[in-house]
């Protein structure tokens, strides 16, 4: 255990994936990573037929069945099933906008909003109406 702990200080990563050469400090992390290559999904949902490579993905998924929302905003009554959704929501209270456009320096509270905005600089219109073929940027 001491040797494993010391790797957090040294940055030593002696375990390498033979598929993509990504390196890891712990053998267990390598074995979990290898599921991305093998497609192994050992975590099965008891509510439906879905299976997952990672335990946390199963935990998040089960909440879609149970309605579990363990992450509560400390500013209002909203609750969320994933901590990442709570963090995004909290920006509505703080006004934090950590995503900045490298073209015009406009800032956004969510990465998805920045991604949609960037299309305004390229003129790209990737979304097309299936009725009339008119194209839109978002």
TrEMBL record:
It is found in: Nucleus. GO terms for cellular component: nucleus. Signal peptide: none annotated. InterPro entries: Dev/Hematopoietic_TF, Znf_C2H2_sf, Znf_C2H2_type. GO terms for molecular function: DNA-binding transcription factor activity; RNA polymerase II cis-regulatory region sequence-specific DNA binding; zinc ion binding. The keyword Repressor does not apply. Keywords: DNA-binding, Metal-binding, Nucleus, Repeat, Transcription, Transcription regulation, Zinc, Zinc-finger. One of its GO terms (biological process) is regulation of transcription by RNA polymerase II. Its main location: nucleus. Pfam families: zf-C2H2. Residues 1-14, 15-42, 43-70, 71-98, 99-126 form the C2H2-type domain. This is C2H2-type domain-containing protein. It comes from Meganyctiphanes norvegica (Northern krill).
């Amino acid at each position: 255990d001491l040797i494993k702990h010391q790797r957090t200080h040294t940055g030593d990563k002696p375990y390498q994936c033979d598929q993509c050469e990504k390196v890891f400090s712990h053998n267990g992390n390598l074995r979990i990573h290898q599921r991305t290559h093998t497609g192994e999904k050992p975590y099965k949902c008891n509510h439906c037929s879905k299976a997952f490579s990672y335990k946390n993905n199963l935990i998040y998924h089960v909440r879609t069945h149970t309605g579990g929302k363990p992450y509560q905003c400390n500013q209002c009554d909203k609750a969320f099933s994933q901590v990442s959704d709570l963090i995004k929501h909290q920006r509505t209270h703080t006004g934090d906008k950590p995503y900045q456009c490298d073209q015009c320096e406009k800032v956004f509270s969510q990465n998805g909003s920045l991604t949609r905005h960037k299309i305004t600089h390229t003129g790209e219109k990737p979304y097309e109406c299936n009725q009339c073929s008119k194209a839109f940027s978002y």
